[in-house]
Design goal:
Chains A, B: It comes from Aquimarina algicola. Chains A, B: Keywords: DNA-binding, Transcription, Transcription regulation. Chains A, B: One of its GO terms (molecular function) is DNA binding. Chains A, B: This is TetR/AcrR family transcriptional regulator. Two copies of one chain form a homodimer. The first copy, chain A, has 193 residues and is mainly α. Chain A has two domains: 59 residues, Arc Repressor Mutant, subunit A (Orthogonal Bundle); 114 residues, Tetracycline Repressor, domain 2 (Orthogonal Bundle), CATH 1.10.357.10. In chain A, 74% of the residues lie in helices and 0% in strands. In chain A, helix 5 packs across helix 7, helix 5 packs antiparallel against helix 9 and helix 8 runs antiparallel to helix 9. The radius of gyration of chain A is 19 Å and the shape is elongated. Chain A starts with 8 loop residues before the first helix and ends with a helix. The mean pLDDT of chain A is 95. Chains A and B meet through helix 6, helix 7, helix 8 and helix 9 of A and helix 6, helix 7, helix 8 and helix 9 of B. Chain A binds a DNA duplex (30 and 30 nucleotides) through helix 3.
DNA sequence: TTAAATTTGAAACGTTCATTTCATTTAAAA
DNA sequence: TTTTAAATGAAATGAACGTTTCAAATTTAA
């Protein structure tokens, strides 16, 4: 009976993510989204609600993609040390391939609106909790295998690593010198060994 | 002959800084600035040019204030270790006193617009260069005094510390647990000793 | 083939945006 | 006291904002 969606939802989210990532939430207009997605205004509102709810869907899509890419690499690592190094190397790779110097979309939106918009605060909190939990998991394993020291608890190291990743992403906005970034990563990780 | 400014320029910049800091550049409207400064629209345009030039003046004011506060504390420190610890402790203090969870204004505006607005890119680049240079200076002294190790160059450690400060500020937006933050700082600094 | 429901397109909604205009007020130098 | 130019206030500018409306087109199941 009803006509069904003709556009590819993921493709639309992908294109919306590009423009949101580049310009930020407040810097992106509905017209930008119309242009970026090649969708009609009404279709956007019909299918995604409002600008804010669309942004939240874009964020989820962005994070799911990120998680997927990381998991794909992480299964290849043989121990905790390799896992952590893989995570940081992927971030360095993202920085270097980020021609627009946009930084991390999740870091950016936390900076832009976590203190203003409860739904974004909640999203970034969940993101933080998940990231710290999975880092803690890896650190724990590394400590049990005696690859990492026990000077701090796994949680404390996880918070440190989470914080360092955000710092790395912020630093990478202006500095894309690969040697600098790799030294930076090795300095960050040294405390674990 | 002419009437002179009746408002206190620094007071206006201070009030403008509060609202820009809270809402970000794109999130702050001219009406917000009129309300926050109690100045007339025309007076703002007469005295500060445009929204963007006003923002740049606010940023300079914000940074000058920050520099001043840090210098005031830094002169009290007896060696490089104390200097670095003072810097990080002041950041932790700022985070804990930041009831609105706004984060650092300079980190925020880099995230929001460094990739879009050349004047902001240039401002944040200069800020980054200055911060790294002064950190490098302190690390150098610490290395000469054999308080800090020489595993990495002073510049590499300075970049690491700069990056860590940004991570700390981003982490502090959602996490204001003082114990967590102090553990975080001590983990960050451990690599130097 | 018909009926149903949703997508789509284009236009319009009222609001807010940054900025400008201009007449009035003000205060300092002549 | 007069002159002068900037500060001020209030209103208006046109453009852009997010969102809604609604008729037309479309496609699927009955």
């Amino acid at each position: 009976m009803p006509k069904s969606e003709t556009f590819n939802r993921n493709e639309v989210l992908q294109n919306a993510a590009l423009i949101f990532h580049k310009k930020g939430y407040n810097g992106t207009s509905m017209q930008d989204l119309v242009d970026a997605t090649s969708l009609n205004r009404s279709s956007i509102y019909n299918s995604f609600g409002s600008k804010l709810t669309m942004f939240l869907k874009v964020l989820s899509y962005y994070q799911t993609n990120l998680d997927h890419n990381f998991s794909k690499e992480l299964v290849k690592s043989y121990n905790a040390k390799e896992s952590i190094e893989t995570i940081f190397n992927l971030h360095v790779e993202e920085i270097i391939n980020d021609d627009d110097r946009k930084g991390c979309m999740i870091v950016n939106c936390k900076s832009e609106m976590a203190n203003q918009e409860p739904s974004i605060k909640s999203f970034t909190e969940k993101n933080q909790d998940k990231m710290i939990a999975s880092l803690e998991d890896i650190v724990s394993k590394g400590q049990m295998e005696k690859i990492f020291n026990q000077d701090q608890t796994a949680y404390q190291y996880a918070l440190y690593l989470f914080s360092s990743i955000q710092g790395l992403r912020m630093t990478g906005i202006l500095n894309k010198n690969e040697e600098d970034l790799q030294h930076l990563v090795s300095t960050i990780l040294k405390v674990l060994y």
